[in-house]
Amino acid sequence: MPEPIPITESKQLVVEGKDAVVFFKALLREMDLAEIQLQNFGGINDLRGFLKGLRRRSGFAQMVMSVGIVRDAECDPTSAFQSVCSALHGAELTVPSQIEKFEGSNPSVGILILPDAMTPGMLETLCLRSVADDPAMPCVNGYFNCVEQRLPCTELPRIMEKARVQAFLASRREPVSPSRWAAHKGYWPWDSPAFDHIKQFLREL
Question: Which domains does the chain have, with CATH numbers?
Answer without folding.
Answer: 11-121+190-204 (3.40.50), 124-180 (no CATH)
